[in-house]
Amino acid sequence: MVPPSGIRKFFDIIATMEDVISLGVGEPDFVTPDQIRRAGIRSLERGETHYSSNSGMLELREELAKHLAKRYEVEYDPETEILITVGVSEALHISLLALVDPGDEVIVPEPCFVSYKPGIIFAGGVPVVLETRCEDGFQIAPQEIEAAIIPRTKGLLIGYPNNPTGTVMPRDLLIEMAQMAEGHGLVVFSDEIYDRLVYGIEHTCFASLPGMRDRTVLLGGFSKAYAMTGWRIGYVAGNGEIIGAIGKLHQYAIMCAPTTAQVAAIEALRNGEEAVQAMVQEYDKRRRVIVRGLNDLGLSCFEPRGAFYAFPSIARTGLSSDQFSERLLFEEKVAVVPGTAFGACGEGFVRCSYATSLEAIEEALRRIERFVHRYG
User: What DSSP letter does each residue of 163-219 carry, written as one string?
Assistant: First the structure.
């Protein structure tokens, strides 16, 4: 049985309260950049309100192919190797349904995004959890993956930059992981929705690693980097055989992604880079403030290098992750997400999103300070 999302529980409570500072939602507080919004508006005004191709507008797929080739030096045929989806959530779900057979095992490092294990289970597969540790920077060692592989192992599901920890795996470890996947014939589902949100380092696209292009199901989208969560636009890229199989599920379940959102996504790729860089710079400021603030309060927090989350330890309070999150919400009206929402090894941690204003973060830290003094 799949439990309800541990994130949604807290959002439902927040909706009934006033004056709550939310560090819980994984959503940019920025409005979609003006030129991207205007592209969508013009599309509506032109009456472009009909279905697109099942695979998505060819113009968008061509822009994505150019983007991936320029940024990561990985080449995809826009006609047969890129599929436009309703957000990365759909991309992940249908990819697992298409490629995981009943009884197949899929290795998942935790903590991880809440949809990973349920998606494997819905496909009839078996998630095999590998726990990561704060003292290792929440990085997974390739040899741990190797030790978990058995004949029923179908693949590996990873998400870097990571939600909830902000971990970015170094290129050398990803290369080792790629060699191991190739040696065992594994498919790698690589969720790279936060690829543009990295700080002081470069993101490595898993499909760009030697031997990985045809073995990787590359999942990406526009929600985070372009502040387009409500537009629901994502994609999956891979070799033609893989995309053909995934596309059948998309055909019958969805038909196509929203046409207006696809037009906006074309504009984002063509003219959105300046806005992306401005948002990344602002996130970086917030990242440094919240990490320093949490550490100053004795809530030990390693430095996240990607996404927009901090994952501090709450051990000094003596509270569980659920207790800390619930009491902080009701006593100080600050919303965070218990680490256990992202896997059992998240116990003793909470996720704090810094995708909110600097002023809100500073006030949240003041409230958390009062709370920690009561329990510390």
Answer: TTT-----HHHHHHHHHHHHHHT-EEEEE-TTTT-BSSS----GGGSTT-TTTEEEE
Instruction: Please provide the DSSP assignment of 87-134 as one string.
Output: HHHHHHHHHHHHHPPTT-EEEEEES--TTHHHHHHHTT-EEEEEE--G
Which of the four pLDDT bands, split at 50, 70 and 90, describes residue 8? low
Indicate the number of domains in the chain. 2
Q: What is the pLDDT of residue 115?
A: 96
pLDDT of residue 71: 98
Question: Is 372:294 a contact under the CB 8 Å cutoff?
Answer: no
The 10s digit of each residue's pLDDT in 290-327 is: 999 999 999 999 999 999 999 999 999 999 999 999 99
Q: Are residues 157 and 241 in the same domain?
A: yes
Q: Do 175 and 317 lie in a common domain? A: no
CA dist 158 → 14, 15, 23 (Å)? 30, 32, 24
**1 lies in some domain:** no
- Whichever domain contains 299, its CATH number is 3.90.1150.10
Over the stretch 38-74, which tens digit does the pLDDT of each residue have?
A: 999 999 999 999 999 999 999 999 999 999 999 999 9
261 shares a domain with 147: yes
How many CB atoms are located within 10 Å of the residue 193 CB? 25
Residue 310 inside a domain? The answer is yes
Which residue, among 112, 122, 178, has the nearest Cα to 145 in the 3D structure?
178
Of 270, 296, 311, which closes a domain? Answer: 270
Structural domain span for residue 265: 34-270
Mean pLDDT, to the nearest integer, of 204-223? 98
